[in-house]
Amino acid sequence: MTAANTTDPVASSATQRVANVAAFEFVRELASELSSSTIELPSFPEIALRLQKLLSEEGASAERVVRLLGAEPVLATRVLAMANSVALNPGGKPITELRAAVTRLGFDALRSVAVSFAVAQLRRAKALAGIERYLNVLWQHSVLVASLCFVVGRRAHKVNPDTAMLTGLVHGVGKLYILTHSMRHPALFGDQATYQRIVRDWHSNIAKALLESWFIAEEIVSAVSCYEDPGRELRGASATLADILEIADMLAMCKESPQLIRDRLAHCKAAAHLELSADICLDLVAESGQELAALRSALAQ
């Protein structure tokens, strides 16, 4: 056996011990942050949080929303871009006034724009240099799921497609939080099995805390918290959103394999609840290609 093929068991054991210590410390920090309500994403812009809060207020007017958006030109530009996307402006008549864009989009679509704007700021933060590739992969998946939630939600006729889109866009915020905060423990990246176990065990509770702090509607919070649980027991809009999110996430993960989509949907309770067969889903994705591309472009900038 050559030296190049030899694994030093002592060095390997030491590396594993370091990773285990890092994992223990990280989990302890996560538990502390959750219990003390200090869950927040780094570099999350104040304007995005203010907009989320305003949109949650009963009786919030379009005029107030427009005034707030006018204070942040980049966010206002994103709102106009979304309002002019193929999916939300099928007539193709250009919208140039911010108030018309706000009226066209509605509050849930505006929330999606605010989240995409906030994550764009996060992805450019100097403090997160070194994990840009991981951030981009995670965010691109969320954007794809959001776009699929929109077209699946519209086909299901049971919830507002904009609400479904927002649900898809924020479903991965717990994973995003774990990724950005794991930089404090770089040894974790050397033990992907342990890291993924932490993500699996913690991302739902973290997402719930984050979304509540962003004033996101309870039915969306419940759907994001439970969509991965096959034994979930939800009612009303939360149950429908969880079903749509589960299907959209599966379509996104299996997008390169139609046969895998068929196999998984054949045993998927969510698909049965929504009366969506594999053929319907595959046809829906194919027919909505232009809309999906437009939504992904508008959300992923």
Jot down its keywords:
single chain; 301 residues; mainly alpha; Hypothetical protein af1432; 16 helices; globular; disordered N terminus
- The overall strand count is 0
CATH topology: Hypothetical protein af1432
Name the beta content range: under 5%
The total tally of domains equals 1
Identify the CATH class: Mainly Alpha
- Taken in chain order, the helices and strands follow as HHHHHHHHHHHHHHHH
Level-2 CATH architecture: Orthogonal Bundle
How does the overall form come out from the CA principal axes?
A: globular
Structural class per helix/strand content?
mainly alpha
Helix content: over 70%
Q: Helix and strand layout, with pairings?
A:
Elements: H1 9-35, H2 46-56, H3 62-69, H4 73-83, H5 98-105, H6 107-123, H7 132-156, H8 161-170, H9 173-181, H10 192-213, H11 218-226, H12 236-253, H13 258-265, H14 269-274, H15 278-287, H16 289-300
Helix pairs in contact: 1-10, 2-3, 2-6, 3-5, 4-5, 4-6, 6-8, 7-8, 7-9, 7-12, 7-16, 8-11, 8-12, 9-10, 10-11, 11-12
Kindly describe this structure.
With 301 residues, this protein is mostly helical. It has one domain: Hypothetical protein af1432 (Orthogonal Bundle), CATH 1.10.3210. Helix content is 70%, strand content 0%. The radius of gyration is 21 Å and the shape is globular. The N terminus is likely disordered.
